[in-house]
What does this fold into?
Amino acid sequence: MKQFEKCEKCGGAIEYRQIDSVQGLFCKSYNWSLVTTCDPELDETKYCVCLLNADYKNSKHISAIASAFGNRYLDVRKLLQQEKPRVFEGEALQILKAKPILESAGLRYEIIPEFNYFKK
It folds into this structure.
């Protein structure tokens, strides 16, 4: 859990919590909280997807990435020759749509910043 500033009511510690699509700030010692929903459609954060195990010689990997993010096959193949290639920068909804495609090809990835929309 992330630690935030102190509670303005009591000076106690405030922490961030997220459960499914609900997130908020909670005071640990005072009965206070600020809660909202997480909606990927409204999220304006720009996320970056970096691949951890992609092989530029593996046509299944190349095709999955091209399909997931709308890139050309040859461009993806060239990109995958980099160490930890950044294959996408954009919005949460596109990452949610790409997830099953990437996973079906056996691709592991890292999303920056932290991406909290996948079911735990």
Q: What stands out?
A: The beta strands are 3-6, 13-19, 22-27, 33-37, 47-51, 86-90, 109-112.
